[in-house]
Structures are given as C-alpha cells and as structure tokens.
Amino acid sequence: MRKYILDLRLRSISHPRPGYAVLRLTDPQGALPPMQAGQFVEVRVDDSPTTFLRRPISINFVDRQANELWLLVHAIGAGTEALTTLHEGATLNVVLPLGNGFTMPAQSGQVEKAMKDATNVASAKAERWLLVGGGVGTAPLLYLGQQLVEAGVEPVFLLGGRSAADLLQLDLFERYGQVFLTTEDGSAGERGFVTQHSIWDASAAQPFARICTCGPKPMMVAVARMARERGIACEASLENMMACGLGACLCCVEDTVDGNLCVCKEGPVFNIEKLKW
Amino acid sequence: MADLRTTIGALQLKNPVMTASGTFGYGLEFADFVDLSRLGGIIVKGTTLEPRQGNAYPRMAETAQGMLNCVGLQNKGVDYFCQSIYPQLRGLGTAVLVNVSGNSPENYAECARRIAALDDIPAIELNISCPNVKQGGMAFGVTPEGAASVVKAVRAAYPKTLIVKLSPNVTSIADIARAVEAEGADAVSLINTLMGMAIDAERRRPVLSIGTGGLSGPAVKPVALRMVWQVFDAVKIPIVGLGGIMNATDAIEFILAGATAIEIGTANFIDPAVTEKVVEGIEAYLERHHFGSIRELIGAAHCG
Ligand SMILES: Cc1cc2nc3c(=O)[nH]c(=O)nc-3n(C[C@H](O)[C@H](O)[C@H](O)COP(=O)(O)OP(=O)(O)OC[C@H]3O[C@@H](n4cnc5c(N)ncnc54)[C@H](O)[C@@H]3O)c2cc1C
Ligand SMILES: Cc1cc2nc3c(=O)[nH]c(=O)nc-3n(C[C@H](O)[C@H](O)[C@H](O)COP(=O)(O)O)c2cc1C
Ligand code: FES
Predict the structure, then answer these.
(1) Is it the case that residue A118 has pLDDT exceeding 70?
(2) Cα(B240)–Cα(B228) distance, rounded to whole angstroms?
(3) What pLDDT score was predicted for residue A4?
(4) What DSSP character marks residue A19?
(5) What domains sit in chain B, N to C, each tagged with a CATH number?
(6) What is the pLDDT of residue B131?
(7) Is A35 left (phi over 0), alpha (psi -120 to 50) or beta?
(8) What is the ipTM, given to two decimal places?
(9) Alpha helices (H) in A165-273, listed in sequence order
(10) Do the domain assignments include residue A103?
C-alpha cells in the first residue's frame, strides 16, 4: 500500500477519561488514503522537546464520510502526553498507513450487498469473530469491528482493563457487535482477566471462527494460548518499540519462527503460528 | 543552476547527498516519499559474508536529540543480497553502495569480492566501526594496525571505489584515517555511532539487550563535525561526512569542514522525505551565495 506523509488538521479532541484522548484528524488537502484495520501511523510530536522520534499509534477508526482518521492516545510519557493535550485546529504530521492489518474475510461483493439488505442479514448465518482487547490495545479493534461488519462477519468484543475507567468507547463498540467486559477490580463486567471471562465456556457450543487480539503482551500471550487450545485461528497485534516504522532500521524485531522480523513492516499483526509464544 | 556533482575515487555522484547504512533499508522502503533518482547515492544495510540474526530485542533507546541502537548487523548474508536484493536495486537512477562488515580480514575481503562482481554497485563502504557486534566490527576500527589489516585484505580483493567507515570511539581518528589511506582506501566516511548506553531507572536495568549501543542523531553532530575537520587536515583522500545531519545547513557545515559528500541517517526516521529536501536546500544555498559548484565549498572553512 502506498504510504504518505501528511499534515493533518485536528478537527476535534475529546477526553473520554483523564489521561486519554480521541484525536479526530482530517486532511484539508483531500480524501484520506486507504487504510486497513490493524495498521498504524507514525506521528511527529512537535510540542515536546524531549520527544525526538515519531510515535507509533494505531488507527482507531476511519470515518470516510467525515474524512476523519481517529487516534486513541493514552498518555504514558512525554510524547503521548503532548498528543493528548493538543488543541483543536492543531496540525499533526503523520506517516501512514504503516504495517499490515488484520486478515479480512474474503470480501465478496455479494456478502456486502447482503449485509446492506437488512432482510437478508437474519437469514444468512454470519461467521462470528472474537476481538479481544486490553487497555489502549482496544484502539484498532473499533475500526476492525466496523470493517468486519461491512465484510459480513459478526464481531464480538471482549474488552479488559484494570478498572471501569480503562474501558473506552464502549458505546461505539456496541454499534458493531456484542460487548463483553472484564476488570481486575470488578468495577465493570466480570472480575478478572479477559481470559477468565465466561464467554470462553459459553462459546464452546458455537465456536468463534477467528480471534483477533491487541493489548499488553502477557494478555495476548494468554489469549493466544486459549486460541490454540480451542484450535481457533488467531492474530495478534504487537507493539514493539520502534524508530522508523518503515522496516528500515530493524529496531522493532520480534523473535519469530522465521527469525527476527520487523513488527513495523511484517506486522504489527502476526498470526500466532509465527510467534514463539 | 549550480553544479552539485562531486567525485569520490572513481565514483561520480550527481550530488553529495547519500543515505547512511542501516537507516534507509535498501532504499525501496522510502520510494513512496523520495524520488530516489534525485539522491547522490544510497548506502544499503550492513552486509556480511554469512547471514546474521543480530542482537535480541530491545535494540533501541531514545535519548536527548538522538537514539541508541544495538541492531548488530542483522542481514541475510551477501549471497542473498546478490541474488534477491541486487536485481531490485538496478536502474534506480542513483549510485547504490553496499556497506560491508565482517569478523576477519579474509572474511571482509571475501564479502567484498562477491560484491565486486555486481556491475551496478560502483563502490563499497567498509564498516570497521560497528560498536554492536562482539567479534570484529569496531575491534578493527579502533587501532591503526587493525584498520590497516582489513583495508589491506579488502584492497587486494576489491578493485572499485573503496570507502572506509571510521569509528569515533578512538583517541585519534586522524591516525586511523592515515593508516587506511596508506593501505589504498579511496575515501573515508565518518562517523559511525558513538558508543553509549541507557539505563531504565524503574527496572534498574540497561534498556538495550546487550547493555551498550551506538548513539546517533543531532546529539553527535558537533563531535562528527570536529572529526571531519581533523581528518581533512590529516589525509588527502576525500571524506564522506555524517553524524546528526538533519537539514541542508547541517550538510553544508560538514562540507565546509572538509566533506566531499555527506550521508543522512537517523534524520530519515523523523522525516522520511528529508534526503530530497537536503538536495534542494544545498542547491538553494549555492544559488543564494553565488557559488557555481559545490566543490568550491569543500573544506572552505579551513581557509583564512
Ligand atoms: C504499532 C503500535 C501501535 C500503538 N498504538 C497505540 C495507540 O493506539 N494508542 C496509544 O496510546 N499508544 C499506542 N502505542 C504505544 C505508543 O506508541 C507509546 O505509548 C508511545 O510511543 C510512548 O511515548 P511517550 O513519549 O509518551 O513515552 P516514553 O517516555 O517514550 O515512554 C514511557 C514509558 O513507556 C515505555 N514504552 C514506550 N513505548 C512503548 C511500547 N511501544 N511498548 C512498551 N513500552 C513502551 C517506555 O519504555 C517508558 O518506560 C502503539 C505502539 C505501537 C508500536
Ligand atoms: C538503526 C541504525 C542502524 C545502523 N546500521 C549500520 C550499519 O549496518 N552499518 C554501518 O556502517 N552503520 C550503521 N549505522 C550507523 C549510521 O550509518 C551512521 O553512521 C550513524 O547513525 C550516524 O549518522 P546519523 O546521526 O545521521 O544517524 C546505523 C545507525 C542506526 C541508527
Ligand atoms: S521500527 Fe525501524 S524497522 Fe521497525
């Protein structure tokens, strides 16, 4: 896919929780380029003197009608702090789209047509995919959910956080599928980790066709184990530290069955069969 | 229009702007951002005789105005390069150079010999200065004798333009430069990364997998500039200057210090289109100051 360096305009910024921001960016020059769910962008952070390198941020959502790219940012250091405190109208220099997205179901025009024709939706038994996210790793799953619906797949979201305050954009997820929650303190959904949710037992009767996951590595490792045990295909989106984001520096490698692969170029989405987890 | 052409040994460059090894992939990664044919040259990833896995992750740490890396020469080996990468690099409209590394003089020489067979690779850059591999690499670049031993072996095996990339992790870089000149190097390039490290105070451990790494970016520029300045006074062969170049002004400073050409490394990560902008910026500088040719500027800060 062709990559671009764009000066995007911050059309609006909202703070769903302290320390988090949703940036809605538009390209004043024209339509945003094609982007896939699971791909990411590299943002230049201009307002933080200690931030030298660009910061990789997932594509949270693409609103084609509004010509908007959404980024969900969690402030954990100077760079992300500067991004969450930007003001409307700011210009953000981004390189995009980077990496490979999640594998999509074979997209036949017919399925799409069937989905648009509401009466057909009920009759066609859609495949169900489980999308498991933790913390800010839920970001790419929103766009993925929307893209899956368009492709005729029914996404089911399983989202986890330390407490209710870490679970974001729930109203938006609900637009695209059922949402199940876990929190470590029990303040929302079931208490515990995503892998302890009862949906794993309940789904035994009607298994998921595929699992997609993004979040902290220990969580993804646990999800990958669940997927393997159940013989379900699974893809995970990694967040290794990056310098170039373009496959040029070899800093972001993951040790895979094929040797050291760049997460930015060969990933960030990997089939778990490639990973040594 | 000012004349940007410059010459290193038998290598003619259409302009002095090249890309630094390890920071520009094989060039193709940047084709969406840069018209590669506008560049003076592309120096591709460090290549060794045998394939190398490189060091474990994490390999990178951000620092004030720079970064540390300990990639450790990950590459699929020279034969893979010749068979699978080289065909894609022909006809890019720019000089493509290979950065060659090894762990013994013979091993460097054999790698260079295989690359000499490739018609469209007019020159190599010999990396005797990688701080991130246990064996070889920088070990050769920190003494005049070590540097001379590698250059001697490679010179015998490689008839085209030979650029030797020097380490800044030495007491006297001028002594090393003289030693490689004496063995027949056509040019020197400097600097490779400065050895450094980062420690994570929360985890109370080094950040990088092997503890230390090489520092690059604007943080090293004053050191690099000083070294180009000193080497210009020490040798007659051309100098390729690099280290922290972020824009055309930085590039001009290196040329004034004595560089015949320059390389851009870490800056590519901040602005993937920077190389082409530097070419344009140098052109504009020459016109603004009424110079007919870039060659009038080489080492010009030394006079008067
Ligand atoms: C492909 C990809 C997609 C991402 N998507 C998002 C996203 O949608 N939203 C979001 O908020 N963040 C995302 N991140 C993480 C984000 O890039 C980092 O949080 C950011 O770079 C931190 O920069 P900083 O200057 O704020 O913090 P720094 O000061 O650089 O770091 C603060 C602390 O966090 C650690 N850290 C920094 N980056 C990472 C990382 N990638 N993995 C593990 N630890 C890290 C550092 O070691 C340090 O201890 C993504 C990362 C990748 C690689
Ligand atoms: C990620 C990374 C990988 C590098 N790999 C190589 C390499 O393989 N061979 C080499 O000679 N230099 C390598 N270098 C050093 C650069 O080519 C250059 O000498 C150094 O980064 C200083 O220039 P800069 O400040 O413009 O980046 C690497 C540098 C970086 C940052
Ligand atoms: S971040 Fe440079 S290769 Fe992945």
Answers:
(1) no
(2) 8
(3) 98
(4) T
(5) 6-302 (3.20.20.70)
(6) 77
(7) beta
(8) 0.94
(9) 170-176, 199-202, 217-230
(10) no
Whether pTM > 0.90 for this model: the answer is yes
Same-domain check for residues A228 and A141: yes
Measured CA to CA, the distance from residue B73 to residue B48 in angstroms comes to: 8
The predicted structure's pLDDT at residue A203: 73
For residue A263, the ligand 3 atom closest to its alpha carbon is: 4
A97 → chain B, closest CA residue = B32
- Split at pLDDT 50, 70, 90, the class of B1 is confident
What is the residue type of B189?
S
Judge if the beta carbon of residue B275 lies within 6 A of ligand 2: no
Domain that holds residue A198: 126-237
Query: Does one domain contain both A166 and A233?
Result: yes
- Residue A43 C-alpha, separation from nearest chain B C-alpha, in angstroms: 9
Option in A44, A253, A265 nearest B57 (CB): A253
Listing DSSP states for B85-153 in one string gives IHHHHTTSSSEEEEEE--SSHHHHHHHHHHHHT-TT--EEEEE---TT-SSSTHHHHTSHHHHHHHHHH
A157 with A207, same domain?
yes
Q: Does the distance separating the beta carbons of A250 and B24 come in below 8 Å? A: no
Say yes or no: B59 contacts chain A, CB-CB below 8 A: yes
d(CA A190, CA A174): 17
DSSP chain B: --B--EEETTEEESSSEEE-TTSSTTSGGGTTTS-GGGSSEEEEEEE-SS-B--PPSP-EEEETTEEEE-----B--HHHIIIIIHHHHTTSSSEEEEEE--SSHHHHHHHHHHHHT-TT--EEEEE---TT-SSSTHHHHTSHHHHHHHHHHHHHH--SEEEEEPPSSSS-HHHHHHHHHHTT-SEEEE--PEEEE-EETTTTEESSTTSEEEEESGGGHHHHHHHHHHHHHH-SS-EEE-SS--SHHHHHHHHHHT-SEEEE-THHHH-TTHHHHHHHHHHHHHHHTT-SBGGGGTTGGG--
Same-domain check for residues A130 and A227: yes
pLDDT in tens, B116-160: 999 999 999 999 988 777 666 778 999 999 999 999 999 999 999
